[in-house]
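Title: Comparing notes on inverse folding

I've been comparing how different people in this forum approach sequence design from structure. To keep things fair, I'm posting one structure and asking everyone to reply with a full sequence. Here's the target:
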């Protein structure tokens, strides 16, 4: 590739909004260009890197028998409704409406895979199958990826497996997990294996390969014990907590709390009570699969804790949840915001609640606690379950925190930020059952497909390499995913000898199968060419300059900076030695 004939540019300064090393260097190297908020275009240089990462992915997926397909990004709305992924009233979803009202655009393809298999596979004899595709992934916001490239659209390589039973699915999952491990290892990326929040509420969380980042990203909790493997996204992490306050029940009493609404304000107003002895009541609006409108529920949690909305959605099997707005709170409680409480939702016989109420495990067995009672400017103290109000169902819906004990070994958990570069989800027979599809078993009966989906992000793999392999001068690509094998720099190409030698080297190497980036720009100083070469980071650079008069050129290794004078006659053999697989 001749730079003089290519879309090529570099920046001396990083974009002002770039936070991560990879974002800064890829932008400065002219590989990515921000085209809109949370959207990037990729230039020819970066697409060359993408080709290399996709080849690594394809090679590994071929080893597990994956077959390439391509399904539409426009998805049938009816399928999405039946799979409980889409609801007409849903205020937060991952699909975009288009003029064709029977279709939606989205980045989640499980329904498409299931529909394709249902139309083409009728017998157990055709299973197992692994299918894969390279497509685009669209995401509601860029926050999970902001530790690398803050984009809401990425090239996505996704595979899906179909098996006859759970044992087959487990086998497919293990094979593809190993394939993903090999892909990441070949790219030279250091990752942490973690559980991660699912795209939809599910009991078994997906597994992910996560790259720790220094800037923004998804928060994760990792057990400090080197012999323990616990690591989860903070939003779904489990952990231990202090046991509840317990004492002999005291008589319930109501206290005036004028304009005292928050836990901190209550702690100041009642200095003898800590947040540990209070119960917060938060109203949520929840959309359930079998409902035609949002339902308001009350969620109880200990005053010193916070709610994890992904955990809450999972325990409710909710399609959508959101905190109730002020008007809803006033209508449901009859009080100003800040005074909601379970006592206000108790029936006259104290045997049930008048709306749905659930509680976090931290509330179980609490005694003599403070809570709201749906009356403005008052709170109830020394409240006790069973005596003053019925016990609600309890779930783990709290947001685990750094320092909480590990649920397995009790070692404190450590918080770090990371970016998911690959995810593996085991769906079981969920989609077959919801979409009422299946195959004929060996006994002639209709049986559900057992499906897994497995996604990996080629562009993020490349960004991770940059994040981990760079220096003060720019990117340091590994030979396996570098956009080119050799960076050929013609110093003072206006000189006939330099031009003729450079052209001869370019022709010789390209005809031998090497990919060469040829800096043949006239009128550009050697210093600028060298700075651009260091910034782009191709593993080996050949400088054609004054030594060409003696039949020699300079070979420079990007990673170490080592320089070597080699003869023109040895260039081909030397390059083959550096890239023995070519």
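Reply #1:
Here's my take.
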């Amino acid at each position: 590739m001749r730079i003089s004939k290519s879309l090529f540019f570099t920046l001396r300064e990083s974009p002002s909004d770039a936070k991560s090393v990879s974002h800064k260097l890829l932008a400065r190297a002219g590989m990515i260009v921000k085209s809109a908020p949370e959207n990037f275009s990729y230039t020819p240089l970066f697409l060359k890197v993408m080709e290399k990462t996709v080849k690594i992915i394809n090679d590994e997926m071929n080893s597990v028998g994956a077959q390439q397909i391509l399904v539409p990004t426009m998805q049938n709305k009816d399928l999405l409704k039946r799979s409980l992924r889409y609801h007409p009233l849903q205020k937060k979803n991952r699909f975009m409406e288009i003029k064709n009202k029977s279709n939606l655009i989205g980045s989640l393809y499980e329904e498409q895979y299931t529909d394709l298999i249902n139309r083409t596979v009728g017998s157990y004899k055709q299973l197992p199958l692994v299918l894969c595709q390279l497509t685009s992934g669209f995401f509601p916001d860029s926050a999970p990826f902001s530790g690398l490239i803050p984009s809401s659209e990425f090239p996505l390589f996704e595979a899906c497996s179909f098996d006859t039973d759970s044992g087959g699915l487990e086998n497919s999952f293990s094979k593809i997990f190993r394939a993903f491990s090999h892909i990441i290892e070949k790219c030279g990326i250091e990752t942490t294996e973690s559980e991660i929040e699912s795209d939809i509420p599910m009991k078994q969380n997906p597994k992910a390969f996560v790259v720790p980042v220094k800037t923004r990203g998804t928060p994760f909790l990792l057990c400090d014990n080197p012999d323990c493997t616990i690591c989860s996204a903070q939003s779904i992490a489990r952990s231990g907590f202090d046991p509840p306050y317990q004492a002999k029940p005291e008589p319930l009493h109501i206290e005036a709390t004028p304009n005292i609404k928050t836990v901190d304000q209550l702690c100041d107003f009642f200095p003898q009570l800590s947040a540990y002895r209070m119960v917060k009541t938060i109203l949520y609006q929840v959309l359930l699969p079998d409902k035609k409108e949002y339902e308001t529920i009350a969620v109880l949690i200990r005053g010193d804790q916070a709610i994890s909305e992904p955990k809450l959605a999972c325990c409710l099997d909710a399609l959508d949840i959101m905190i109730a707005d002020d008007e809803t709170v006033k209508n449901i409680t009859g009080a100003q915001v800040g005074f909601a409480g379970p006592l206000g939702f108790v029936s006259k016989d104290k045997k049930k609640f008048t709306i749905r109420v659930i509680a976090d495990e931290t509330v179980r067995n609490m005694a003599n606690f403070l809570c709201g009672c749906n009356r403005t400017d008052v709170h109830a103290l020394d409240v006790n379950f069973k005596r003053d109000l019925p016990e609600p169902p309890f779930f783990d819906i709290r947001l685990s925190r750094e320092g909480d004990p590990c649920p397995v070994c009790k070692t404190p958990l450590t918080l770090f930020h990371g970016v998911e570069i690959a995810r593996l989800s085991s769906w079981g027979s969920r989609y077959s059952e919801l979409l009422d599809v299946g195959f004929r078993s060996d006994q002639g009966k209709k049986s559900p497909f057992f499906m897994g989906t497995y996604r990996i992000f080629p562009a993020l793999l490349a960004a991770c390499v940059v994040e981990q392999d760079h220096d003060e001068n720019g990117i340091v690509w590994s030979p396996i995913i570098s956009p080119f094998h050799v960076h050929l720099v013609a110093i003072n190409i206006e000189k006939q000898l330099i031009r003729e030698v450079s052209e001869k080297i370019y022709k010789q190497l390209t005809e031998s199968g090497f990919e060469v980036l040829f800096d043949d720009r006239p009128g550009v100083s050697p210093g600028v060419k060298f700075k651009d070469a260091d910034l782009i980071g191709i593993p080996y650079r050949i400088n054609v300059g004054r030594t060409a008069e003696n039949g020699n050129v300079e070979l420079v290794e990007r990673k170490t900076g080592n320089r070597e004078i080699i003869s023109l006659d040895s260039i081909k053999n030397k390059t083959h030695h550096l890239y023995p697989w070519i």
